[in-house]
């Protein structure tokens, strides 16, 4: 067996919260290294937060992103692990939504997003351009701050695969999974064994089913390993990003994160066997034929072994996919959004005028559901939730014992009496 441990994550990032976002990124890398992972994938635009809107047009947003990246590179965090990070990058005076891959305090590749989300809730083409050169790279001139740390003048920029000494790794980003002609198709045919998808995907009813169906289909038809990372929480707007980080191997899910969680950092890891991918692919005659005709993807040589000897460690077995019922999604999604917005807003609770109608009753119910979620997290040892709750209620030793106690502290109402109430 050729075993390697891979890590992906849900991160609760906040638009333009560079300090907090960096803290959570660092914590996820610490956890990945502690788990023995050799590769760590983070969400889309994790350094800035996804919902920066027109702040993406500001030069300071780009500058602060490089400063955060410099802090990561100037530490030991990237030692012995490939870190796949998300941030905006301007190349040849064009702004791109990028993945930046680093190892051992050096940059390996900047991979720009090629298919942007421009419908529904998304306006990515307003801030970014899509990379129009599949299977091609250019040299990107690095800023002075990065050059002083890595001693690199340039780094490859474009659509390429990392060629470690034992496998091939490549990226596709969020919307590219949903497109009719996804990059993972030609990447897999050209021998890429690990495809990583960093997403900023918001919650819609039953959307998780579609994501997982696409990922299972991608790895079932052509074999391979697929990692999915996502934002989790409300990053400042009206959307809720619902996490659900996962790892799939040859058409089966082997690891899955939560969909609605107040956790700021949730790491998902799996130990996978590269030989299982090669055996699976070698048994598909049509894949053999199409692979022999595949157009080559540029390789970035990386002097690093992703596989490792780990006595007693075995491949992570497949699991049953966990789905919430529609009723649970309707309950948990808005409740999780309410908590995230409350703790970031600096307010001390919710004020709800009661009319006696369905709207105010539904909002009150959502706060009650939120209280149940928070108490469950506290009982599970989530120190961040307890610290935030204590700050909001203004009591340093506050220790709730029942959900109603939390609701009573956070929900403030007034009755709006009318002839019809």
Feature tags:
alpha/beta; 14-stranded mixed beta sheet; two-stranded antiparallel sheet; 13 helices; 35% helix; single chain; 421 residues
Brief synopsis:
With 421 residues, the chain is of the alpha/beta class. 35% of the residues lie in helices and 25% in strands.
Plain-language structure description:
Helix content is 35%, strand content 25%. By secondary structure, the chain is an alpha/beta fold. Strands 1, 2, 3, 4, 5, 8, 9, 10, 11, 12, 13, 14, 15 and 16 form a 14-stranded mixed beta sheet that branches. The chain has a two-stranded antiparallel sheet with strand order 6-7. A two-stranded parallel sheet has the order 17-18. The model has no long low-confidence stretch (mean pLDDT 96).
Summarize model confidence as the mean pLDDT: 96
The low-confidence parts are: none
Largest sheet: 14 strands, mixed
C-alpha-based Rg, rounded: 22 Å
Strand segment count: 18
- How much helicity do the residues have? 25-40%
Distance between the termini: 69 Å
């Amino acid at each position: 067996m050729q075993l390697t441990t891979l890590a992906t994550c849900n991160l609760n990032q906040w638009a333009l919260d560079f300090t907090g976002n960096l803290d959570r990124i660092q914590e996820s890398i610490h956890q990945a290294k502690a788990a023995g992972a050799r590769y760590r994938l983070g969400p889309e635009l994790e350094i800035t937060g996804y919902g920066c809107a027109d702040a993406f047009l500001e030069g300071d947003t780009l500058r602060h992103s490089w400063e955060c990246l410099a802090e990561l590179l100037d530490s030991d965090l990237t030692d012995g692990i490939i870190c796949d990070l998300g941030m905006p990058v301007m190349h040849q005076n064009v702004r791109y939504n990028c993945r930046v891959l680093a190892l051992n305090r050096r940059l390996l590749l900047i991979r720009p997003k090629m298919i942007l989300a421009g419908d529904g809730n998304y306006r990515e083409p307003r801030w970014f351009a899509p990379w129009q050169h599949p299977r091609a790279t250019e040299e990107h001139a690095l800023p002075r701050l990065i050059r002083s740390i890595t001693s690199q003048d340039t780094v490859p920029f474009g659509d390429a695969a990392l060629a470690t000494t034992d496998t091939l790794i490549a990226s596709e980003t969020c919307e590219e999974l949903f497109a009719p002609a996804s990059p993972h198709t030609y990447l897999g045919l050209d021998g890429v064994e690990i495809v990583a998808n960093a997403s900023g995907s918001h919650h819609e009813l039953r959307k998780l089913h579609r994501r997982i169906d696409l990922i299972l289909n991608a790895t079932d038809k052509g074999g391979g390993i697929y990692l999915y990372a996502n934002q989790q929480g409300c990053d400042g707007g009206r959307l809720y990003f619902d996490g659900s980080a996962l790892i799939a191997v040859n058409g089966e899910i082997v690891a899955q994160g939560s969909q609605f969680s107040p956790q700021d950092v949730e790491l998902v890891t799996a130990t996978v066997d590269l030989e299982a991918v090669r055996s699976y692919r070698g048994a598909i005659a049509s894949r053999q034929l199409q692979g022999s005709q595949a157009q080559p993807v540029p390789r970035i040589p990386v002097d690093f072994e992703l596989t490792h000897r780990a006595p007693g460690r075995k491949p992570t077995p497949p699991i049953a996919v966990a789905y919430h019922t529609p009723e649970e999604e309707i309950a948990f999604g808005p409740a999780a959004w309410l908590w995230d917005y409350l703790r970031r807003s600096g307010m001390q609770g919710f004020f709800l005028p009661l009319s006696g109608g369905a709207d105010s009753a539904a909002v009150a119910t959502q706060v009650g559901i939120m209280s149940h979620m928070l108490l469950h997290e506290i009982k599970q040892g989530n120190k961040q939730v307890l610290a935030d709750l204590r700050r909001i209620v203004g009591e340093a030793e506050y220790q709730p014992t029942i959900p109603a106690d939390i609701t009573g502290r956070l929900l403030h109402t007034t009755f709006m009496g009318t002839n019809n109430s």
